[in-house]
Amino acid sequence: MTDTPLPAARRPTDVNAPCVRVSREAGEETRERLVDAGLFDGDRQIAVVDGEIYVPVVDADAVPADLAVVDRATGGRDQQTTPADLLGEAPTYERLGDIVVIDEDDPEVARAVADAIVTSDVPCETVLNRASKVTGEYRVREWDRLAGESTETVHREYGHEFLLDPTTVYFSPRLATERHRVVEQVQPDERVVDMFAGVGPFAVPVASRGAEVLAVDANPAAIPYLRENASRNGVADRLTAVEADVRTVVDGVDGDATSEGYRDWADRLVANLPHSADEFLDTAVALAGDDCVFHYYDIQHEDDPFGPGVRAIRKAVAASGDDYDVTVETEQVVRSYAPHELNVCLDVRLCR
Questions:
Q1: 41 closest CA partner among 65, 62, 10, 66
Q2: Suppose 254 and one of 19, 123, 244, 291 were both cysteines; which one would form an S-S bond, judging by CB atoms 3.0 to 4.6 Å apart?
Q3: Which tens digit of pLDDT belongs to each residue from 173-200?
Q4: Strand pairing of 191-194 and 212-217?
Q5: What is the structure's pLDDT at 255?
Q6: Does this model's pTM top 0.90?
Q7: Taking residues 121-150, what's their average pLDDT?
Q8: Could you report how far apart the first and last alpha carbons of the chain are, in Å?
Q9: How far apart are CA 270 and CA 202, in angstroms?
Q10: Superfamily for 171-351?
């Protein structure tokens, strides 16, 4: 048998305290108003009963006359108020720095969840609701900003930090474990090409392992963040960030014929563009050195999640004329992407 938490206003440590009573919809606005006036009692919990929020105050007599003050049992701050306390059920959300991301189709539900998050003790400056799927060349989506002003944040992951704005660049915190799996394989002095680098969640940790990294992305919004993240993580001397279609760096960075280019250069390749990485397989083969590990991301049906990728890689190698042995070292399911579809990674060794 499991214990069911008591509602916020009935926990055993509750004591009566003066509170401002407002509707749930006005809860966050009222809390901020009381904070600005120095009246919010940060030692007490906010309580929610029957759709009304009770915001504890330190001085009932100083509360503006347009706000109703009542005595109400509220818990101590050692008991954190969660969004579930306020909604009656736990909403689904994920953290991206101090941004909270939700995915609600119903605008009224989205608003209620956002209000609960900002009223709760969840550390949060901004709440974004996904308004579209990832689309376009730069893999960004549309968002509804439900709370907060800034959409720029610093996200921390496995000891590294990444400045980013999810409204202009692609970043998925759900891939942290997978990124770490790949990074842990990197050896010092490797030469690594991150073919679709974004703000650097692969490239920066790889460089921190002592590798020399070429990080390429076509999104002009991503490159300043990529360079900033290399600097703030102390790897700018080992990471070259290039704004380009990766196909142009093989024989000269961004098509510059005077540049040496990166043909046959890489000991390791990362191709995290699962919907269309197959379009860049000839480039990957051209970048690969004599002994290269290729991390190829794909989305396929659960009945055969790895076969199409393996066949496509072998076909690209055969078409290149290079005499590579192709060895599949790891078949990794990253996550479920959609009903009956899996996001997978193939770790493939290309060895001349």
A1: 62
A2: 244
A3: 989 999 999 999 999 999 999 999 999 9
A4: parallel
A5: 52
A6: no
A7: 93
A8: 61
A9: 8
A10: Vaccinia Virus protein VP39 (3.40.50.150)
The CA distances from residue 270 to 201, 204, 245, 274, 293, in Å, are 11, 13, 15, 11, 9
Q: What letter represents residue 263's amino acid? A: R
CA–CA distances in Å: residue 316 to residues 127, 280, 312: 43, 9, 6
Domain boundaries, the chain: 8-79, 84-151, 171-351
pLDDT confidence of residue 281: 98
Q: Are 40 and 56 in contact (CB under 8 A)?
A: yes
* Residue indicated by tokens 């000891």: 159
Q: 33: Cβ–Cβ under 8 A, 6 or more apart, which residues?
A: none
Cβ–Cβ under 8 Å, residues 298 and 276: no
Across 241-261, b (16+ Cβ under 10 Å) vs e yields bbbebbbbbbeebeeeeeeeb
Poorest-pLDDT segment among 21-30, 300-309, 326-335 = 21-30
Structure tokens at 190: 């490797």
CATH for 84-151, among 3.30.1490.100, 3.30.300.110, 3.40.1390.10, 3.40.1190.10? 3.30.300.110
pLDDT tier at 25 (50, 70, 90 boundaries)?
Answer: confident
% pLDDT > 70, the chain: 93
Give me 149's structure tokens.
């002003």
Cβ-proximal residues to 300 (8 Å cutoff; 6+ apart), any chain? 306, 307, 308, 309, 341, 342, 344
For residue 78, count other CB atoms closer than 10 A to its CB. Answer: 8
Q: Which strands, in side-by-side order, build the sheet including 126-130?
A: 93-96, 99-102, 126-130, 143-147
Report the length, in residues, of the chain: 352
d(CA 134, CA 106): 19
Q: What topology does CATH give the domain 8-79?
A: Alpha-Beta Plaits (3.30.70)
The predicted-structure confidence for 83-126, as pLDDT tens digits, reads as follows 988 998 989 999 999 999 999 999 999 999 999 999 998 889 99
Query: How many CB atoms neighbour CB 68 within 10 A?
Result: 11
